[in-house]
UniProtKB/TrEMBL annotation:
GO molecular function: arylsulfatase activity; metal ion binding
Annotated keywords: Calcium, Hydrolase, Metal-binding, Signal
CDD domains: ARS_like
Domain Sulfatase N-terminal: 35-356
Protein name per UniProt: Arylsulfatase
Pfam families in the cross-refs: Sulfatase
Alphabetical list of Gene3D superfamilies matching this protein: 3.30.1120.10, Alkaline Phosphatase, subunit A (3.40.720.10)
Family to which the UniProt record says this protein belongs: Belongs to the sulfatase family.
Organism: Methylobacterium durans
Amino acid sequence: MKKPTLLLGMALLASSALSPTGALAQSSPARDGRPNIVFILMDNLGYGEVGVYGGGITRGAPTPRIDRLATEGTRLTNYNVEAQCTPSRSAIMTGRFSIRSGTHSVPIGGGLEGLTRWEVTIAETLSTVGYATAAFGKWHLGSEQGRLPNEQGFDEWYGIPRTTDEAFWPSEPAAKAAGASFEHIMEGRKGERSREGPVYDLDQRRLIDAECARRTVDFMKRSVASGKPFYAYVPFTLVHFPTLPNPQFAGRTGYGDFPDALAEMDAHVGEILDAIDDLRVRENTIVVFTSDNGPEATWPWQGSSGPWRGYYFTHMEGSLRVPFIVRWPGQIPAGRVSNEIVHEVDTFTTFAKVAGAAVPQDRPIDGLDQSDFLLGKAETSSREGFPVFVADRLEAVKWRNWKLVFYDEQRDWWTPPTKLGSPKGFDLITDPKEEYPATGLRNSWNAGPAMRIMTEFVESLKRTPPIAPGTPDP
């Protein structure tokens, strides 16, 4: 199978405006109103970590730059993701639920993993309409040559191909004695093989996010100088365990490594925001701040789910709901807070729309266009619900404020999945921690709409069977 030809769509007009420093915002004729997009993705950042989501000083570290970003844009309180790192990143890249792409679980090791090259990524989609594209951080969607970011639509990339816990391995004598293969920091450019840099050990773990921020700023400078709109995908490694701050932030808060890492995270977001202002492209740049999934449950790196319950690798709200802030001055309403349901797959379709690109027509795309909702033209989301997969198990369905679950609660990734004899229903407005299942005929009416979502999705899997994990490239 070949990737489809993507058609050039209508580019949106963007108004020029003054930056906070009073300088005229740059508007290049080559850009034709297409906004730049900076997509900042934190790793295992729970709902309750950032100040505007109830964290900040209560978690030992204020987050002033992220909090200010929320006042300048729209903040969602019901933004949903997939339950694990690899599935979540796959959904962002393709606009498809990961069960379709053979990426429904974090690869443990051995065998071919990640996205097949048949999948069409957001980077490939935006490249067709003239965007410069780059990824800086954790990929986790394939570590073989051919499945790294520079072979999946990105002009350039720097980061780690897999995950941060592998930083432990080089300091383990048993791993060295066994001749284990260690993860390396890598970088590459489109049309070339990616090359290995230093081993990703505990020292490099502390330094990598600062380098990702530096490279992001450099990429934006080069893109603006060339007159090209840009898409910067910045999947930082913080706050994934081992949650170790950069030496410049160690001891900053006085509360330990995790709060110090939150302070570092906020600072790097501030660096990127300052660079956007310095480049005078603030009014023509969409900035997203979010996380790939809910928090870690392992001491001493455990995170906070805020008002929800549960950790990642589960169907609990603490796994699915994460922070989401989006800013586009003069286009997306400032200071708006919404509890409408949005899923991360929607970002693919929405950003393709605002960039004037077409989405693939030869495969199911689960992402819905949320541009009217985010731009304030509609009060309601385009989405009422979605199926919740944990690995390859359909464990729940969300519909409006209701959640129908088919498996018993899982607090963390060690809890074995136990299928229920009969589904439980939870009203997430009155029962945000999913402790009191609604019972009896009085509340069974909500099962109909939820089951309809499930049935329609299952039928779509029959019409277009999912790609099996480990499927080689065509």
